Amino acid sequence: MGRYVFKLPDVGEGTTEAEIVAWRVKVGDTVKQEQELVDVMTDKATVEMTSPVAGRIVALHGELGEKAPVGAPLVELEVEGAGNAAGNEEPVPAAKPAPAAEKKEPIPAAPVEPAASEKPLASPAVRERARTLAIDLKSVPGSGPEGRITHADLDAFVTGGASPPSVAQDGVEEVKVIGLRRKIAEKMQESKRRIPHYTYVEEIDMTELEALRAQLNAARRADQPKLTVLPFLILALVCALADFPQINALYDDEAGVVRRFRAVHAGIATQTENGLLVPVVRNAEGRDLWDIAAEIARLAAAARDNKATKDELSGSTITITSLGVLGGLIATPVINRPEVAIIGPNAIVERPVVREGRIEVRKMMNLSSSFDHRVVDGYDAAQFIQRVKALLEHPAALS
Protein backbone atom coordinates (compact mmCIF):
# COMPACT_ATOMS: atom_id res chain seq x y z
CA MET A 1 0.00 0.00 0.00
CA GLY A 2 1.19 3.51 -0.70
CA ARG A 3 0.12 7.05 0.04
CA TYR A 4 -1.17 9.61 -2.46
CA VAL A 5 -1.21 13.31 -1.61
CA PHE A 6 -3.73 15.34 -3.59
CA LYS A 7 -2.61 18.98 -3.83
CA LEU A 8 -4.54 22.05 -4.86
CA PRO A 9 -3.94 22.33 -8.63
CA ASP A 10 -3.49 25.50 -10.63
CA VAL A 11 -6.98 26.27 -11.87
CA GLY A 12 -5.69 28.93 -14.28
CA GLU A 13 -6.26 32.68 -14.79
CA GLY A 14 -3.43 33.58 -12.45
CA THR A 15 -5.09 32.06 -9.37
CA THR A 16 -2.61 31.63 -6.51
CA GLU A 17 -4.99 30.41 -3.80
CA ALA A 18 -8.50 29.12 -3.28
CA GLU A 19 -10.93 29.01 -0.39
CA ILE A 20 -12.21 25.69 0.94
CA VAL A 21 -16.01 25.95 0.95
CA ALA A 22 -17.25 22.33 1.26
CA TRP A 23 -15.71 18.97 2.11
CA ARG A 24 -17.41 16.10 0.25
CA VAL A 25 -15.54 13.30 2.07
CA LYS A 26 -14.29 12.48 5.56
CA VAL A 27 -11.39 10.52 7.00
CA GLY A 28 -12.02 6.80 6.61
CA ASP A 29 -14.12 7.10 3.45
CA THR A 30 -13.26 4.93 0.47
CA VAL A 31 -13.44 6.91 -2.76
CA LYS A 32 -13.41 6.05 -6.44
CA GLN A 33 -11.40 7.76 -9.13
CA GLU A 34 -13.08 11.02 -10.23
CA GLN A 35 -15.22 11.10 -7.07
CA GLU A 36 -15.66 14.62 -5.71
CA LEU A 37 -13.42 15.45 -2.76
CA VAL A 38 -13.78 19.15 -2.02
CA ASP A 39 -15.29 22.35 -3.39
CA VAL A 40 -13.03 25.42 -3.54
CA MET A 41 -13.78 28.98 -4.57
CA THR A 42 -11.64 31.25 -6.69
CA ASP A 43 -12.96 34.77 -7.10
CA LYS A 44 -16.67 34.04 -7.74
CA ALA A 45 -16.32 30.63 -9.35
CA THR A 46 -16.78 27.45 -7.30
CA VAL A 47 -14.67 24.54 -8.56
CA GLU A 48 -15.32 20.88 -7.76
CA MET A 49 -12.08 18.97 -7.07
CA THR A 50 -12.21 15.26 -7.87
CA SER A 51 -9.88 12.47 -6.88
CA PRO A 52 -7.35 11.38 -9.55
CA VAL A 53 -7.06 7.97 -7.85
CA ALA A 54 -9.11 5.43 -5.92
CA GLY A 55 -8.27 4.85 -2.28
CA ARG A 56 -9.14 5.44 1.37
CA ILE A 57 -9.05 8.93 2.92
CA VAL A 58 -6.45 9.13 5.70
CA ALA A 59 -6.18 12.91 6.18
CA LEU A 60 -7.88 16.16 5.23
CA HIS A 61 -6.11 19.52 5.34
CA GLY A 62 -7.83 22.84 5.92
CA GLU A 63 -10.97 24.10 7.61
CA LEU A 64 -14.02 25.51 5.87
CA GLY A 65 -13.28 29.11 5.00
CA GLU A 66 -9.52 28.62 5.03
CA LYS A 67 -7.56 29.68 1.95
CA ALA A 68 -5.06 27.19 0.57
CA PRO A 69 -2.25 28.18 -1.81
CA VAL A 70 -1.80 26.38 -5.11
CA GLY A 71 0.30 23.26 -4.47
CA ALA A 72 -0.78 22.87 -0.83
CA PRO A 73 -1.88 19.35 0.24
CA LEU A 74 -5.64 18.99 0.56
CA VAL A 75 -6.34 15.26 0.82
CA GLU A 76 -4.18 12.23 1.60
CA LEU A 77 -5.25 8.77 0.47
CA GLU A 78 -4.06 5.25 1.07
CA VAL A 79 -3.84 3.62 -2.35
CA GLU A 80 -2.83 0.40 -4.03
CA GLY A 81 0.76 0.59 -5.26
CA ALA A 82 3.39 3.22 -4.50
CA GLY A 83 1.25 6.35 -4.69
CA ASN A 84 3.11 9.64 -5.09
CA ALA A 85 4.68 9.93 -1.62
CA ALA A 86 7.21 7.82 0.32
CA GLY A 87 5.35 4.89 1.85
CA ASN A 88 7.12 5.10 5.21
CA GLU A 89 6.11 8.70 5.85
CA GLU A 90 3.41 9.45 8.33
CA PRO A 91 0.47 11.49 7.04
CA VAL A 92 0.89 15.22 7.52
CA PRO A 93 -1.12 16.22 10.60
CA ALA A 94 -4.38 17.61 9.31
CA ALA A 95 -5.88 20.75 10.75
CA LYS A 96 -8.83 19.75 12.85
CA PRO A 97 -12.02 21.55 11.89
CA ALA A 98 -13.29 23.86 14.58
CA PRO A 99 -16.24 22.27 16.35
CA ALA A 100 -19.58 23.63 15.26
CA ALA A 101 -21.24 25.89 17.77
CA GLU A 102 -23.59 23.82 19.86
CA LYS A 103 -27.19 24.89 19.55
CA LYS A 104 -28.81 24.68 22.94
CA GLU A 105 -32.25 23.19 22.92
CA PRO A 106 -34.71 24.65 25.41
CA ILE A 107 -35.74 22.33 28.21
CA PRO A 108 -39.51 22.47 28.58
CA ALA A 109 -40.91 22.88 32.04
CA ALA A 110 -42.54 19.71 33.27
CA PRO A 111 -46.33 19.78 33.67
CA VAL A 112 -47.47 20.09 37.25
CA GLU A 113 -48.73 16.86 38.78
CA PRO A 114 -51.66 17.49 41.15
CA ALA A 115 -51.28 16.10 44.65
CA ALA A 116 -53.51 13.15 45.45
CA SER A 117 -55.42 15.08 48.15
CA GLU A 118 -55.90 18.23 46.06
CA LYS A 119 -58.82 18.99 43.83
CA PRO A 120 -57.33 19.53 40.35
CA LEU A 121 -57.60 23.06 38.94
CA ALA A 122 -59.78 23.10 35.82
CA SER A 123 -62.60 25.07 34.27
CA PRO A 124 -66.18 23.75 34.43
CA ALA A 125 -66.02 22.97 30.70
CA VAL A 126 -62.86 20.90 31.15
CA ARG A 127 -64.43 19.04 34.13
CA GLU A 128 -67.58 18.30 32.12
CA ARG A 129 -65.53 17.00 29.21
CA ALA A 130 -63.41 14.85 31.56
CA ARG A 131 -66.58 13.29 33.02
CA THR A 132 -67.84 12.57 29.50
CA LEU A 133 -64.52 10.88 28.67
CA ALA A 134 -64.46 9.05 32.01
CA ILE A 135 -61.12 10.58 32.90
CA ASP A 136 -60.01 11.21 36.49
CA LEU A 137 -58.55 14.73 36.43
CA LYS A 138 -56.14 13.76 39.25
CA SER A 139 -54.33 11.63 36.67
CA VAL A 140 -53.94 14.47 34.16
CA PRO A 141 -50.82 16.71 34.34
CA GLY A 142 -51.80 20.36 33.99
CA SER A 143 -49.75 22.80 31.92
CA GLY A 144 -51.70 25.97 32.77
CA PRO A 145 -51.02 28.49 35.53
CA GLU A 146 -50.54 26.79 38.91
CA GLY A 147 -51.07 23.42 37.23
CA ARG A 148 -54.49 24.24 35.76
CA ILE A 149 -55.70 21.52 33.39
CA THR A 150 -56.66 22.67 29.90
CA HIS A 151 -58.45 21.07 26.97
CA ALA A 152 -55.03 20.55 25.36
CA ASP A 153 -53.94 18.59 28.44
CA LEU A 154 -57.01 16.35 28.07
CA ASP A 155 -56.20 15.83 24.37
CA ALA A 156 -52.63 14.89 25.23
CA PHE A 157 -53.79 12.50 27.97
CA VAL A 158 -56.26 10.78 25.63
CA THR A 159 -53.62 10.32 22.90
CA GLY A 160 -51.00 9.25 25.42
CA GLY A 161 -48.68 12.24 24.93
CA ALA A 162 -47.71 15.18 27.08
CA SER A 163 -48.80 18.67 26.11
CA PRO A 164 -45.68 20.78 25.50
CA PRO A 165 -46.02 24.05 27.37
CA SER A 166 -44.95 27.36 25.90
CA VAL A 167 -41.37 28.11 26.93
CA ALA A 168 -38.88 30.87 26.30
CA GLN A 169 -36.26 30.07 23.68
CA ASP A 170 -32.57 30.04 24.52
CA GLY A 171 -29.29 29.39 22.75
CA VAL A 172 -27.20 31.12 20.08
CA GLU A 173 -26.13 29.63 16.75
CA GLU A 174 -22.84 30.80 15.26
CA VAL A 175 -22.59 30.67 11.47
CA LYS A 176 -19.16 31.11 9.92
CA VAL A 177 -19.12 33.48 6.95
CA ILE A 178 -17.30 31.62 4.18
CA GLY A 179 -17.28 31.13 0.43
CA LEU A 180 -19.54 33.28 -1.71
CA ARG A 181 -21.18 34.87 1.33
CA ARG A 182 -17.77 36.17 2.44
CA LYS A 183 -16.94 37.36 -1.09
CA ILE A 184 -20.19 39.31 -1.20
CA ALA A 185 -19.54 40.81 2.24
CA GLU A 186 -16.02 41.90 1.29
CA LYS A 187 -17.14 43.41 -2.01
CA MET A 188 -20.06 45.32 -0.47
CA GLN A 189 -17.83 46.63 2.31
CA GLU A 190 -15.22 47.79 -0.17
CA SER A 191 -17.85 49.42 -2.36
CA LYS A 192 -19.39 51.40 0.50
CA ARG A 193 -15.98 52.32 1.91
CA ARG A 194 -14.56 53.66 -1.34
CA ILE A 195 -17.54 54.99 -3.29
CA PRO A 196 -19.50 58.11 -2.25
CA HIS A 197 -22.97 56.83 -3.11
CA TYR A 198 -26.00 58.95 -3.76
CA THR A 199 -29.43 57.63 -4.66
CA TYR A 200 -31.98 59.12 -7.05
CA VAL A 201 -35.57 57.81 -7.12
CA GLU A 202 -38.14 58.53 -9.81
CA GLU A 203 -41.75 57.41 -10.24
CA ILE A 204 -42.58 55.80 -13.59
CA ASP A 205 -45.99 55.11 -15.12
CA MET A 206 -45.69 51.55 -16.44
CA THR A 207 -49.30 51.21 -17.64
CA GLU A 208 -48.53 51.29 -21.37
CA LEU A 209 -45.49 49.07 -21.06
CA GLU A 210 -47.39 46.49 -19.00
CA ALA A 211 -50.15 46.41 -21.62
CA LEU A 212 -47.56 45.90 -24.37
CA ARG A 213 -45.80 43.20 -22.35
CA ALA A 214 -49.08 41.31 -21.82
CA GLN A 215 -49.88 41.55 -25.55
CA LEU A 216 -46.43 40.29 -26.58
CA ASN A 217 -46.51 37.43 -24.08
CA ALA A 218 -49.94 36.34 -25.32
CA ALA A 219 -48.65 36.17 -28.90
CA ARG A 220 -45.17 34.77 -28.26
CA ARG A 221 -43.95 31.61 -29.94
CA ALA A 222 -43.37 28.41 -28.00
CA ASP A 223 -39.60 28.85 -28.31
CA GLN A 224 -39.67 32.40 -26.96
CA PRO A 225 -39.27 33.17 -23.23
CA LYS A 226 -41.92 34.96 -21.22
CA LEU A 227 -41.13 38.67 -21.11
CA THR A 228 -40.49 40.37 -17.78
CA VAL A 229 -39.81 44.06 -17.19
CA LEU A 230 -36.02 43.54 -17.29
CA PRO A 231 -35.58 43.24 -21.09
CA PHE A 232 -37.50 46.50 -21.58
CA LEU A 233 -35.38 48.20 -18.92
CA ILE A 234 -32.16 47.02 -20.58
CA LEU A 235 -33.33 48.38 -23.94
CA ALA A 236 -34.14 51.70 -22.26
CA LEU A 237 -30.68 51.78 -20.68
CA VAL A 238 -29.02 51.07 -24.04
CA CYS A 239 -30.88 53.99 -25.62
CA ALA A 240 -30.20 56.39 -22.74
CA LEU A 241 -26.53 55.47 -22.21
CA ALA A 242 -25.70 56.56 -25.75
CA ASP A 243 -26.14 60.13 -24.52
CA PHE A 244 -24.58 59.53 -21.07
CA PRO A 245 -21.36 57.55 -21.69
CA GLN A 246 -19.94 58.55 -18.28
CA ILE A 247 -22.55 56.28 -16.65
CA ASN A 248 -21.67 53.17 -18.69
CA ALA A 249 -18.19 53.14 -17.21
CA LEU A 250 -15.73 51.65 -14.74
CA TYR A 251 -13.69 53.85 -12.40
CA ASP A 252 -10.17 52.73 -11.51
CA ASP A 253 -9.76 54.99 -8.49
CA GLU A 254 -6.20 53.80 -7.83
CA ALA A 255 -5.05 54.78 -11.33
CA GLY A 256 -7.39 57.77 -11.49
CA VAL A 257 -8.88 56.61 -14.81
CA VAL A 258 -12.51 56.33 -15.93
CA ARG A 259 -13.01 53.77 -18.70
CA ARG A 260 -16.11 54.51 -20.77
CA PHE A 261 -17.55 51.62 -22.80
CA ARG A 262 -19.33 51.77 -26.12
CA ALA A 263 -20.74 48.29 -25.52
CA VAL A 264 -23.37 47.84 -22.82
CA HIS A 265 -22.68 44.78 -20.69
CA ALA A 266 -25.64 44.64 -18.31
CA GLY A 267 -25.16 42.77 -15.04
CA ILE A 268 -28.34 41.17 -13.69
CA ALA A 269 -28.19 40.67 -9.91
CA THR A 270 -29.58 37.17 -9.34
CA GLN A 271 -30.41 35.58 -5.99
CA THR A 272 -29.32 31.94 -5.70
CA GLU A 273 -29.12 29.38 -2.91
CA ASN A 274 -25.41 30.18 -2.64
CA GLY A 275 -25.88 33.95 -2.48
CA LEU A 276 -26.09 36.89 -4.87
CA LEU A 277 -24.48 36.43 -8.30
CA VAL A 278 -24.32 38.91 -11.19
CA PRO A 279 -24.41 37.17 -14.59
CA VAL A 280 -23.81 39.53 -17.51
CA VAL A 281 -25.87 40.12 -20.66
CA ARG A 282 -23.05 41.07 -23.01
CA ASN A 283 -23.43 43.53 -25.87
CA ALA A 284 -27.02 44.38 -25.06
CA GLU A 285 -26.80 47.16 -27.66
CA GLY A 286 -26.70 44.48 -30.39
CA ARG A 287 -29.69 42.46 -29.16
CA ASP A 288 -33.44 42.82 -29.63
CA LEU A 289 -36.09 42.43 -26.93
CA TRP A 290 -36.55 38.67 -27.33
CA ASP A 291 -32.83 37.98 -27.53
CA ILE A 292 -32.23 39.90 -24.30
CA ALA A 293 -35.06 38.02 -22.59
CA ALA A 294 -33.68 34.65 -23.70
CA GLU A 295 -30.18 35.52 -22.52
CA ILE A 296 -31.47 36.68 -19.11
CA ALA A 297 -33.34 33.39 -18.68
CA ARG A 298 -30.31 31.33 -19.74
CA LEU A 299 -27.91 33.16 -17.43
CA ALA A 300 -30.28 33.12 -14.46
CA ALA A 301 -30.73 29.34 -14.80
CA ALA A 302 -26.97 28.81 -15.06
CA ALA A 303 -26.36 30.95 -11.97
CA ARG A 304 -29.02 29.18 -9.89
CA ASP A 305 -27.72 25.76 -10.97
CA ASN A 306 -24.16 26.82 -10.05
CA LYS A 307 -23.09 26.27 -13.66
CA ALA A 308 -22.32 29.85 -14.69
CA THR A 309 -18.74 30.35 -15.85
CA LYS A 310 -16.39 33.04 -14.59
CA ASP A 311 -16.73 34.87 -17.92
CA GLU A 312 -20.51 34.87 -17.53
CA LEU A 313 -20.18 36.33 -14.02
CA SER A 314 -17.77 39.15 -14.81
CA GLY A 315 -17.28 42.12 -17.12
CA SER A 316 -20.46 44.12 -16.47
CA THR A 317 -20.42 47.88 -17.12
CA ILE A 318 -23.71 48.67 -15.36
CA THR A 319 -25.85 46.52 -13.06
CA ILE A 320 -29.60 46.09 -12.60
CA THR A 321 -30.78 44.84 -9.22
CA SER A 322 -34.46 43.93 -8.88
CA LEU A 323 -36.40 42.39 -6.01
CA GLY A 324 -39.21 41.39 -8.36
CA VAL A 325 -42.53 41.06 -6.54
CA LEU A 326 -40.72 42.00 -3.31
CA GLY A 327 -39.54 45.26 -4.86
CA GLY A 328 -41.03 47.52 -2.20
CA LEU A 329 -41.31 51.29 -2.62
CA ILE A 330 -37.72 52.54 -2.51
CA ALA A 331 -34.27 50.92 -2.28
CA THR A 332 -30.72 52.24 -1.90
CA PRO A 333 -28.73 49.91 -4.18
CA VAL A 334 -25.01 49.40 -3.51
CA ILE A 335 -22.86 49.96 -6.60
CA ASN A 336 -21.10 46.94 -8.06
CA ARG A 337 -17.57 48.37 -7.87
CA PRO A 338 -15.75 49.42 -10.08
CA GLU A 339 -18.95 50.36 -11.94
CA VAL A 340 -20.32 53.85 -11.33
CA ALA A 341 -24.08 53.21 -11.42
CA ILE A 342 -26.67 50.63 -10.44
CA ILE A 343 -30.37 50.64 -11.40
CA GLY A 344 -33.04 49.17 -9.11
CA PRO A 345 -36.63 48.73 -10.31
CA ASN A 346 -39.13 48.38 -7.48
CA ALA A 347 -42.55 46.74 -7.41
CA ILE A 348 -45.24 47.73 -9.92
CA VAL A 349 -48.43 48.61 -8.06
CA GLU A 350 -51.78 50.06 -9.02
CA ARG A 351 -52.53 53.40 -7.38
CA PRO A 352 -54.57 56.54 -8.08
CA VAL A 353 -52.77 59.17 -10.14
CA VAL A 354 -53.88 62.64 -11.22
CA ARG A 355 -53.72 62.95 -15.04
CA GLU A 356 -54.94 66.14 -16.73
CA GLY A 357 -57.09 66.98 -13.73
CA ARG A 358 -58.63 63.50 -13.46
CA ILE A 359 -57.92 60.73 -11.01
CA GLU A 360 -57.03 57.46 -12.75
CA VAL A 361 -55.77 54.11 -11.53
CA ARG A 362 -52.36 53.52 -13.14
CA LYS A 363 -49.63 50.91 -12.82
CA MET A 364 -46.78 52.77 -11.16
CA MET A 365 -43.20 51.78 -10.35
CA ASN A 366 -40.41 53.56 -8.51
CA LEU A 367 -36.96 53.33 -10.06
CA SER A 368 -34.21 53.53 -7.41
CA SER A 369 -30.70 54.18 -8.70
CA SER A 370 -27.33 54.86 -7.07
CA PHE A 371 -24.37 56.67 -8.62
CA ASP A 372 -20.70 57.26 -7.84
CA HIS A 373 -20.55 60.98 -7.08
CA ARG A 374 -16.85 61.11 -7.99
CA VAL A 375 -17.71 60.38 -11.61
CA VAL A 376 -21.42 61.15 -12.13
CA ASP A 377 -22.81 64.57 -11.19
CA GLY A 378 -26.28 64.77 -9.72
CA TYR A 379 -27.61 66.78 -12.66
CA ASP A 380 -26.40 64.18 -15.16
CA ALA A 381 -27.86 61.34 -13.12
CA ALA A 382 -31.25 63.07 -12.94
CA GLN A 383 -31.24 63.72 -16.70
CA PHE A 384 -30.28 60.10 -17.37
CA ILE A 385 -33.10 58.70 -15.25
CA GLN A 386 -35.59 61.13 -16.80
CA ARG A 387 -34.54 59.80 -20.21
CA VAL A 388 -35.07 56.19 -19.03
CA LYS A 389 -38.45 57.22 -17.57
CA ALA A 390 -39.60 58.69 -20.89
CA LEU A 391 -38.59 55.54 -22.77
CA LEU A 392 -40.40 53.20 -20.36
CA GLU A 393 -43.54 55.35 -20.29
CA HIS A 394 -43.64 55.39 -24.11
CA PRO A 395 -42.35 51.91 -25.02
CA ALA A 396 -42.92 52.44 -28.75
CA ALA A 397 -39.76 54.55 -28.63
CA LEU A 398 -37.75 51.45 -27.69
CA SER A 399 -38.19 49.84 -31.11
Descriptive overview:
With 399 residues, the chain is an alpha+beta fold. It has 3 domains: 2-79, OB fold (Dihydrolipoamide Acetyltransferase, E2P), CATH 2.40.50; 107-166, E3-binding domain (Dihydrolipoamide Transferase, Irregular); 181-398, Chloramphenicol acetyltransferase-like domain (Chloramphenicol Acetyltransferase), CATH 3.30.559.10. The chain contains 7 helices and 18 strands. The strands form 5 sheets. A 6-stranded mixed beta sheet has the order 9-18-17-16-12-15. Strands 1-8-6-3 form a 4-stranded antiparallel beta sheet, with no helix packed on it. The chain has a 4-stranded antiparallel beta sheet with strand order 5-4-2-7, with no helix packed on it. Helix 5 crosses helix 6 and helix 5 (229-241) packs across helix 7. The longest helix is centred in the middle third of the chain and has 16 residues, at 179-194. The radius of gyration is 31 Å and the shape is flat.
